[in-house]
Structures are given as structure tokens and as C-alpha cells.
Specification:
Layout (H helix, E strand, L loop, with lengths): L2 H14 L3 E2 H8 L3 H13 L3 E4 L2 E4 L8 H7 L3 H12 L7 E4 L3 H4 L12 E4 L2 H7 L6 E4 L3 E3 L4 E3 L1 H8 L3 E6 L3 E3 L3 E4 L2 H13 E7 L11 E4 L6 E5 L4 H7 L5 E5 L3 E5 L9 E7 L5 H17 L2 E7 L4 H13 L4 E4 L4 H13 L4 E4 L7 E4 L2 H19 L6 E6 L5 H18 L7 E5 L4 H13 L7 E5 L2 H13 L6 E7 L2 H8 L5 E6 L2 H16 L7 E3 L4 E2 L4 H4 L7
Parallel strand pairs: 4-5, 4-9, 5-6, 9-12, 12-14, 14-15, 17-18, 17-19, 19-20, 20-21, 21-27, 22-23, 22-24, 24-25, 25-26
Antiparallel strand pairs: 1-3, 2-3, 7-8, 10-11, 11-13, 15-16, 16-18, 26-28
């Protein structure tokens, strides 16, 4: 298949489904994930699709009502999409959010397709139409006078509706911005309704592409001290970064390869620039780690974060290391999967005299932080054995192991712990009864390999499954469910991330539980360890999490959120 033919096939696959992940495209087209990412980048530049975390969606999925709005939405598109992608990550299932009618905010819609049960308040016709494709959302249009070409509603009717609403987060943009004047708008009525939007929200996040900086339009509608967070693109002039650090707003600069987050300046404590190379932004657990780290850095008030995505690739992680060194970071928090690449990465940081904290996957020379792999594995294995004793009389037909080879022997203790825990309850499992599958560290690859395993075991109805992580466990659940064989499996996970917790809460789920890693708590602990290292304080060589096995019976005790989060 030629490059052109492969890219046309990608577009055909995207027309058949609303979105598709890199791992799935690589599997279907029998090429590397790196090749697929290059294809998606080329197709995005050609205007044929939009990159989203872990994959892509067709760009022409939304049919614009207003030709004028459509034209404006396609100005500086790449920058607006990077900003919108990062902003959308601040929205959780069940949130109430306000989206204004701007083209920058409009781009958030495509990145919210995976969210559920949102209440969205907007005066933007295009925004409402784009999000209405998901029936789980509640869309509230703020009433008023329709301006067709701008695809928005303005006027006192909408302002009165907003008076009685209490919204968690408002996402707004502007036609001009300066630190002195704040957010400004050309149109007076539009400025008035945006001002009312801001008053209705607990926090306000401004999405301002770099072309708007230094421009002051007719009517101001918000001062900088009313804004909690400003997101912009990497074309921003450095002088604005320094100006905004003197305010109370957090600034995030969204680049193609790295994203930098700057906290307000304080002369009372030394400032540090910390790099975070994340495992993969397509997975919920590392995303939760990154979110917690961002919040902890903001709370610390003396930490600027440089964020990058290792994309589950040792090769990418090496390039990310070079970029972080070039950024002049004081310390790096490294979350990468490839044991073979770990030594090369550490050599780079040692040569640059940059200390390293390794998350979950050890690297020689780095301070370790995260999972106590064997202990977390063993508690899941014991729980699996007890379930089998109670529900299957202590016997099962096969043990399926969804494993991952790249992290090396120390992380393999996670699987060994599950095996030992299971066998301590159910007795020794013969190798002939064990099927080992590659999880690929993703739900897509795990699902594909589990599908194949189920097809090869049509007459076996008691299949116990242990998993490298929750993504693998979700892949196994999905495969069994789609095959109509959910009752044939029992599965345990590792991580207890938000996706797994949602599944555990599902009535009758055969994901019976997962060892909690508490990814949402990593951030504060990582910042504490990083600050100690940078201040020359003694730090132990390894800082381990404490683990609890989360089940449907105790999940509300540890995660009291009926929405599944």
C-alpha cells in the first residue's frame, strides 16, 4: 500500500466511525504507530481531519450553519485547536460549563465528544449544534436576538437567564487582550453578555490565541484578575509571558510538542522549572497524573511546568528529553515505558546535570516514585482467587494474562504478584492452562488480542483474566461484552483509574475490582519530592504508594462520586 493509498484508507475508516485511535489504525493497516501519527499530521495539515488525544476525527463532521462563522473558525485553526484541546481536558463528566460564541471556544466541541452528562450553557448557535450530536448532554441556549452571520444570540433576555444560573466553569474568548485593559470585544452587546457569563461562573478560563495579544478593542468585559487561567498558543511573544506572571492568572502556552504552564510570580520563594514527560495522553491514568501535577504546581506558586507526551514510545521519549533539556528545566519527572530507552534518557539528563524522578517505571539513577508493583499485583490476585472460590467453586478453565514486556523485570513484578496471589488461594496454575497476551499497554490492543483468544476458546466458559493495567482490563471487558461472553470471564485491573471505576460501578460488570494507584494524588507528592530534591534535602531512593483493592462494595468509601469518577 502506498502512502497515498494508506491515507485514503484512514479517511475511509474515519467516515465509518466517529473517531479512531492510533493503535487501532496501526493494527488495521499493519504499520507502526509512528507512521500513523505522521499520516494523521499530514492529513490534518491538509484540512481533512482533526487530531485528538490518541487518534483523530474527521474535520468535516460539523456542517456550519453560518458561512461567515465557518470562515472565521478556519483562521489560525491549528493554534485554536491546540488551545481548545487543552481547555477541554479541564472538563469532567457531569460538569456544568458555559461556552461563549467565539470560534476559539467552538473548537472545544470536538474534544468533548467522549464526555457524558454535561450541562452546556451557550449563546453560540454553532457551539450548541456541534455538541447536540451527543444525546447525553443537556444544552441550554441563552436566549436573545439572533445574529445569523455571527451565529450567536445577544440581548437582555439572555442576560436575565444567566442571573439565575450557577456554572462551574466558563470558557470565553475575546477579539483583543492586554494585561492593562483585560479582555475586550468589538461589539458592545456581545461584551455585555460575556460580562454576565463571567459573573455566573465559579471560575473563568480564557482561550486567547496569540494574534489577540496587545490588541485593545472597543469594549472591555473582563479584567485579568477575573480570570483564573489563560490558554494561548506558542507564537506568543515572550514579553507577554513575563507580564502575565505579575498577575493572579495561570498562563498555559500550548505548543505542537510541549505545553508550558506558568504560575503567578512570587519573590518570596525560589522558582523552579520542572519538566513532565507523560507516559501517554491517550490513557486516563497518566492524564489524571498530569492533571494532578498541574494543580499541585499551581498550588505551589513557584513552579513552572513544561509538559510533553512520550506517546508510549521510547523513541519519542528520547526526543522529548532533548526538548526538555533545551527548555532549561531544573528537574524532570519522567514517565516512560521502555526499559531499553531508560538508560539513554538518563544519560542525556545526567550530562545536562538535570535530576530525574521516574514515575512507576524505574530508571537507574533516578528517584523512583509510584507503584509498589508486587504488592499491588498480589492483592488483585488474591481478590480474583476469592471470587473464583465463591462463584465458580474454586476452579476455572483458563488463566489469561494481559502483560506488557517493555517496562522490564521490576514492573513485571506486577503480573507476578497477581499470579502468586491467585495461586495462594486457588492453587498452582499449570502453564498449559495459561494464555499470555500482549496488552500493548492500551485497551485497543488488549481488546483485539482478547477477541482472538475468545474465538479460540469457544467451549471454555470460566476464564480468569489478570491485567497489566486498567486499559488492558477494559479491553478484555469490551471484547467479552461484544462477543456476548461477558459471563465467561472474571477480570481484575491495576490502577483503579476513572475509566475502570466507571466500569466497576456498572451493574453486573465482570471487572470485579482494581488495585488503586491513586493517580489523582501523584501530583502533590511529586511536587513535594521535586522541591525537596531541588532544595538539597535528603530524599529516599524510592517513594511508594499505598494500595487498596477497589471493588463495587468499597468504591463509594474511597471515591464518593455516583457519576463514576
Amino acid at each position: 500500500m502506498t502512502t497515498f493509498e494508506r491515507r485514503q484508507q484512514i479517511l475511509r475508516l474515519l467516515r465509518d466511525q466517529s473517531g479512531i485511535k492510533v493503535t487501532e489504525l496501526a493494527r488495521r493497516l499493519n504499520v507502526s504507530e509512528g507512521t500513523i501519527r505522521n499520516d494523521l499530521s499530514a492529513l490534518e495539515k491538509a484540512g481533512q481531519l482533526t487530531r485528538v488525544r490518541g487518534g483523530a476525527v474527521l474535520r468535516d463532521g460539523h456542517r456550519f450553519i453560518s458561512s461567515s462563522f465557518s470562515a472565521r473558525a478556519q483562521v489560525n485553526t491549528a493554534a485554536k485547536q491546540r488551545i481548545a484541546r487543552w481547555a477541554a481536558d479541564m472538563v469532567e463528566d457531569g460538569d456544568s460549563v458555559l461556552l461563549d460564541s467565539s470560534t476559539t471556544v467552538f473548537h472545544i466541541a470536538s474534544f468533548l465528544q467522549g464526555r457524558s452528562n454535561l450541562t452546556i450553557i451557550t449563546n453560540g448557535i454553532e457551539v450548541a449544534f456541534a455538541l447536540s450530536q451527543n444525546p447525553n448532554h443537556t444544552i441550554i441556549l441563552v436566549g436573545g436576538i439572533l445574529r445569523h452571520e455571527q451565529a450567536l444570540l445577544v440581548g437582555h433576555l439572555g442576560e436575565r437567564i444567566l442571573e439565575n444560573l450557577h456554572i462551574k466553569t466558563a470558557f470565553v474568548s475575546c477579539s483583543g487582550f492586554s494585561v492593562e485593559t483585560g479582555l475586550t470585544q468589538v461589539d458592545i452587546q456581545e461584551a455585555q453578555i460575556k460580562s454576565r457569563m463571567i459573573e455566573s461562573a465559579e471560575q473563568v478560563i480564557a482561550l486567547i490565541d496569540s494574534t489577540k495579544f496587545g490588541k485593545v478593542d472597543l469594549t472591555p468585559f473582563a479584567s485579568v484578575d477575573q480570570i483564573a487561567h489563560i490558554l494561548t498558543d506558542s507564537s506568543l511573544d515572550a514579553r507577554y509571558v513575563e507580564e502575565l506572571r505579575q498577575t493572579c492568572a495561570v498562563l498555559t502556552v500550548c505548543g505542537e510538542n510541549t505545553t508550558s504552564s506558568y504560575t503567578p510570580w512570587s519573590e518570596e520563594t525560589p522558582r523552579y522549572k520542572i519538566g513532565f514527560a507523560n507516559l501517554g495522553e491517550s490513557m486516563s491514568l497518566p492524564v489524571d497524573v498530569r492533571r494532578g501535577l498541574e494543580q499541585a504546581a499551581q498550588n505551589a506558586s513557584n513552579v513552572d511546568l513544561i509538559l510533553a507526551d512520550n506517546q508510549l514510545s521510547g523513541e519519542v521519549a528520547l526526543r522529548v528529553a532533548d526538548r526538555l533539556i533545551a527548555e532549561g528545566v531544573d528537574l524532570v519527572i519522567e514517565y516512560q515505558i521502555d526499559e531499553k530507552a531508560g538508560g539513554l534518557i538518563m544519560d542525556k539528563f545526567k550530562e545536562a546535570d538535570v535530576p530525574v524522578i521516574a514515575v512507576d517505571i524505574p530508571m537507574v539513577g533516578a528517584t523512583y516514585f509510584g507503584v509498589d508493583h508486587y504488592r499491588a499485583g498480589r492483592m488483585a490476585g488474591v481478590a480474583l482467587g476469592r471470587w473464583i472460590a465463591e462463584h465458580w467453586g474454586g476452579s476455572f478453565d483458563r488463566l489469561i494474562v494481559l502483560e506488557e514486556q517493555r517496562p522490564g523485570a521490576l514492573v513485571a513484578a506486577r503480573i507476578q504478584g497477581q499470579l502468586d496471589g491467585l495461586q495462594s488461594v486457588a492453587g498452582k496454575v499449570a502453564p498449559a492452562r495459561t494464555i499470555r497476551l500482549d496488552s500493548g499497554n492500551t485497551s485497543d490492543i488488549s481488546q483485539a488480542n482478547m477477541n482472538e483468544a475468545l474465538e479460540g476458546l469457544p467451549d471454555e466458559h470460566r476464564l480468569a483474566v489478570i491485567s497489566f493495567n486498567d486499559d488492558a482490563a477494559i479491553g478484555a471487558v469490551t471484547a467479552a461484552r461484544q462477543a456476548g461472553r461477558e459471563q465467561d470471564v472474571v477480570i481484575v485491573g491495576q490502577g483503579a483509574d476513572r475509566i475502570a471505576r466507571k466500569e466497576i460501578r456498572r451493574s453486573g460488570s465482570r471487572l470485579i475490582g482494581s488495585a488503586a494507584y491513586w493517580p489523582e494524588r501523584y501530583g502533590q507528592k511529586l511536587i513535594d519530592v521535586a522541591q525537596a530534591i531541588l532544595q538539597g534535602e535528603p530524599v529516599p531512593p524510592a517513594v511508594y504508594n499505598k494500595h487498596i483493592f477497589i471493588t463495587k462494595d468499597n468504591i463509594d468509601e474511597f471515591y464518593p462520586n455516583s457519576g463514576g469518577g
